[in-house]
Structures are given as structure tokens and as C-alpha cells.
Amino acid sequence: MSDKKKVDKQSKDEQLEHYRREDSGKHLTTNQGLKMSEDEFSLKAGERGPTLMEDFHFREKMTHFDHERIPERVVHARGFAAHGEFELYKSLEKYTKADFLTDTSKKTPVFTRFSTVAGNRGSSETVRDARGFATKFYTEEGNYDLVGNNIPVFFIQDAIKFPDLVHALKPEPHNEMPQAASAHDTFWDFIANNQESAHMVMWAMSDRAIPRSFRMMEGFGVHTFRLVNAEGKSHFVKFHWKPVLGTHSLVWDEAQKISGKDADFHRGDLYSSIENGDYPEYELGIQVIPEEDEDKFEFDVLDPTKLWPEEDVPVEIVGKLTLNRNVDNVFAETEQVAFHPGHVVPGIDFTNDPLLQGRLFSYTDTQLIRLGGPNFHELPINRPVCPFFNNQRDGYGRQTINTGQVSYHKNSLAQNTPEPAAPEEGGYEHYHEKVEGRKIRARSVSFKDHFSQATLFWNSMSEPEKDHLIQAFSFELGKLESDSVRKQVIEMFSNVSLDLVQGVAKNIGITPPEHGGSDVTKSSPALSQQNTVFKPDTRVVGVIVADNFAGSEVTNVLEGLADKGMSPVVISTRQGTLKGADGTELTVDHTFTTVDPVLLDAVYVAGGGEQSKAFRKKVSYYLNEAFTHFKPIGATHEGIQLLQDNELLEEPGVVAEENGVEFVSKFTEAVAAHRHWDRQVI
């Protein structure tokens, strides 16, 4: 028997020797050689209490993880940002004493950074991934950072597991592949063996993980925080950013092609929108639960793998974020900005969410290595707008030149300045939560339901969204080398939905399970993008024109589309100026070689009297790509014949009209719909 045939007879798992570890069968220890009895839970004051500072194992593990990569961020390395302002609609004084959330007369300056999570700085922006949505509020009481994602839950429940998650998600160390992608063995092996991730994975496999733009994705604070009012009353809160343009996504084939055509697609969209005056807007929403209602829900309100269904806890819209200025220098601002969930102001406090508790340590620790020391707060992008005074001195990157001999508290030589501020003077005071319990590495029993909200998410999806989930799982698991991991994942998600796993199993050649499923029938319509806002505003329409086009009739259509808020770009075989049949001139923005249909939201074919064979072939390519990705397609004049030649007339989302006014009206509706899922696309 040949060597090749011998290898073929081995199972795939037997071939994967590079996954075998040299310390196989050994006990887990600290870096000092101390054997550890637990590596799943951080040390807390009681099962649902805060993480304790004396947890040396957590601090060693997290510190080592935070310092693994230099100089870019370990996660969220690929990002883009903009300046703006936050405007409060109504006072929240019944919930909080935070000045920027109670004074409606103020506009608070902000800096917002969007990012992918897994990839390095050179990776593509349209990969399947969660997106960071971090906002720094420069308030008069100090900087407040709302550091969140475009997904409201997370993979893990306790921060001590964050290094494990990212190690599994990052490119595999033996070959540094794949970049910025989760379709590999170690990630899915982690998921199958850490089933608290089930809910987050449903979001990550959904359309939410491939947003159309930063301007069209939601943001979430993820964790449960506290709002504390002037009387000391506490409410639990979750923060939401709702995009005014609605929440919209790419399709997977389109996302992959954009990665090759324009790796800067999302940052380019954000930058251009601001330069054009189409300022991205997001409304701030809050979900509030009185502290006394903490135990009234079927889930633990402190569990970061759980959301609060909006139908049970409505989102109250309280303000608006507008991004209206691009950065002057990407390195100085976007790269050097330092976010931290521990940057709070009076009236905003923390809960005992064990993932949040760990982040309160990790972020400062990360900045120390990434920005060279403890003075990252003095970089211009991080400096508060209010004055700050303390006894911190020296260190790498120090810019402040402190005068005087005294740099300690308490003192008499400098009349004890700077002195602490009492709460009534604006001094920060932690919420007086009663905490008691045995020191223990454990997790509350109330955190153990890993599947009910994953099923809730599945139940909430429209049929196209469910199909996209099946296709996403099929793509990801289809890329794995390990049959064992594939089977483990299928078995795991059989606890979520049999319809889901049976569709996936069939696609990847695994025997579909016959038993399993969930008895959860509840759904949350707010989770489906089918129920978002639909507008044509800022949509990029590729307008395909040839010489001897229908003159002013076509230019009137372009003006009509622009009046409806769309951004028409003229595309032809050459740059320069095209002449219409009546002498009207039209400037070409792009040739077929400088823009691709995947970079457009819609295609409108105006055609012209002088159409070369090359022109018609390119039009066919544009039409079929747009059709395959369910995008709106329109045509007037000679363009209608081109639609007919490509057998696209009468298809859903395809508008063909000779009358320009009628065309603009119908095409606007088609563009506002974003996608036309009822097409029969093979």
C-alpha cells in the first residue's frame, strides 16, 4: 500500500498531531509553579459578589494576556474613529446624578471608535466578527467611557476566561492562520467545550456580524451597570445605541468580495459620510430595572451572556450622538485613544458582573504596555476637558511639569492640596452595596442556563435571517479539519434548535441529530433586522451611463435621487465627460475598473445610444452581481433593454420606468428596502 493510501485511511483527528501539547496530562500551574485547583472562575465575595483583588491567579493570567502583543491592541486593533457631540433629550435625574445625563442644555463632546475584534491592524474590515463601539464623553465632571460592542452579549461569563477565548479565536500559532476569521478548529473547539458561548455565537453567525457600515449598526454597553441618583437610589441599566438609519448588513458573499476589492470599506464609508456632511447619528437608549426587581426575571440580570428582551424591559430613548468631524491624525487620535470601562463620573457605577469586574483591571493594565506607561491620560485625545489634580508623578511619557515640593496626601506644607471632594461637592462615591460571602472560585447557579436565549434569538429571526445563520454555521464548520469538533458543535447547538443543526449537518456531511431542540417558544421581534428602520438616505447608487444618453431626462433622475437623500455616482467605460443626445454633459465619477458592484447599495442603468460590446458585458456583470446580492436595480431609457437582455425584468426589487418622476418614486422605495430577499437566487 502506498504511503498516500496509508494516510488516507487514517482519520483526520489522527493526522492533527500539531494540536498535541508538550504538557499533555500535566497539572495546571501558575507561572511560579503553584498548582491551581480552578481555572474557570475568579475569586469572589460570594457566588454573585465582586471579584477580589487578592485573586493572584486571575491577575497573573490577565496581566500576561494583556501584555502579549505590542504595540497594537491585543483585540480591537483594526479601528477607525470620529469626533462628535452628545445631546440629551430629557433629564435622567430620577435615575442618575451624572451631569451630562441630567442637563439638557449641554452638548457633550465625544470621541467614538469603531473596530473589528479579532484581526490585526492590517486585516480587512468586512470579516465576520463582532464590532467594537466605544465612546468617550468629555464631560465637565471628567471623562466617561462607554466601551461596548455591536452585539449585546458576550462569549464568556467571567473575565478569567478572556485570555482563553482570544487565544482560541486568534490565528492558530503554528501557522498564524486564518487572519481575522473564526472558521478554524481552535475557535470552535473552545465553543464546543465552553457552552456559555452559545448565545453570542448565534449573534456572531447572524447578519449582525457583517454590518453594512458603522453608520448602520447598533451599539450596546453589554454589561449591566448602575445608575445612582442624588438620593443614593440605585437602578440597574443597560445602554443601547440605535442608528438613525436603521440596522443593516451585508450578505456573506458580498462581504468576502469587498475584503478583496476594498479592505478599508467601513472606514472609507464613515470618513466620506462625515466629509460629505451626512453625519452619522445614533440615539442613546437605556433599559432600567429597579434594584429591588433584580430577581424577578427568568435570567440573571448580571449575566453578560444574557440580554434583557426589549418587550420585557423597554428601551427608553434619551439622547442623540452625532459624529461630525473626522480625525486630523489617525495615529495620534484613533490609535492612542485609551478607553476604560472604569472611567466613570458621579451617578454611574458598576455591578458584580464578573466579566465587567475583570475588565476594570484589564484595561489599565493593557494601556501600560501599549502606550508606554502610566501617563496615557496626558495624550491630547485622552485628556479630560475639565482640570485634574492629584499627587501622581513621573513615569514614561510625563508631560506635566509639576512644581512645588509636596506630592503626597495628607500634607500640611501645601495646606493639604489637592484635597478630596465630598459627594455634595461632586466627589465620586461608590454605591454602598452590601457585600458578604465566603471567598470562593465559583459561579452562581443562576448563570447556568446557556441555551434559552440562544433559542430566543433563533425564534426571533425572519426566514432569510435563519437561512443566513444556517449558511454561516455551514461555512465556518465546513472549514474545520477536525470531524470531532464539527460533531461536538452540532451536538451543542441541538440544544438551541433542531431546524438549525439539521440544516447545518446536512450541508457539512454529518448525520443530522433526530433528538434535541428546545421548548422555548418566546421570541423578541426587536432582535430581527426585518423590524429596523428603512431609509434610502446616504445609499450609494451606481449610475451606469454611455455616450448619447437621454440627456436632461437622465440628469433629472439623478437630481431626483439626490433629493431623496441618495448618493448617485456615475460609472462608464472611461473617465471624463459624457454627452447626452441633447448636448447635456455628465461627469464620470468612476470607470468599471475603479468601482465594483459590491461597493454599491444599488445599481441604476441609464444606458445610452452608443453602447459598445465591452459596455454591455460590464453592465451584465454589474446587474448580475447586484441581483445575486439582493440589491435594488433600476433602469430607464436604453437601460430597460439591458435589463431585458439579462432576463431581470419583473423580478422583485427591479424597477424599469420610462417616466423619470415615476422611476424616482418607485426606485426610492426599492432602495429603502435595503435587500429584496424574495428573489430566486441560485
From TrEMBL:
Broad enzyme group: oxidoreductase
Residue numbers annotated as active site: H76, N149
PROSITE patterns: CATALASE_1, CATALASE_2, CATALASE_3
Top-level taxon in the UniProt lineage: Bacteria
Keyword match Iron: yes
Any one Gene Ontology molecular-function term assigned to this protein's record: heme binding
InterPro entries: Catalase, Catalase_AS, Catalase_clade2, Catalase_clade2_helical, Catalase_core, Catalase_haem_BS, Catalase_immune_responsive, Catalase_large_C
Binding locations of heme: R73, R113, F162, R359, Y363, R370
Disordered, as annotated region: 1-38
Keywords: Heme, Hydrogen peroxide, Iron, Metal-binding, Oxidoreductase, Peroxidase
EC number: 1.11.1.6
Reactions listed under catalytic activity: 2 H2O2 = O2 + 2 H2O
Gene Ontology annotations for the cellular component aspect, listed alphabetically: cytosol
Keyword match Iron: yes
Basic and acidic residues bias spans: 1-26
Catalase core domain segment(s): 29-417
Cofactor: heme
CDD domains linked to this entry: catalase_clade_2 (cd08155), GATase1_catalase (cd03132)
Cross-link (3'-histidyl-3-tyrosine (His-Tyr)): H340-Y363
SUPFAM superfamilies: Class I glutamine amidotransferase-like, Heme-dependent catalase-like
GO biological process: hydrogen peroxide catabolic process; response to oxidative stress
Biological function: Decomposes hydrogen peroxide into water and oxygen; serves to protect cells from the toxic effects of hydrogen peroxide.
Family, as annotated: Belongs to the catalase family. HPII subfamily.
Protein name as it appears in the record: Catalase
Organism: Halobacillus halophilus (strain ATCC 35676 / DSM 2266 / JCM 20832 / KCTC 3685 / LMG 17431 / NBRC 102448 / NCIMB 2269)
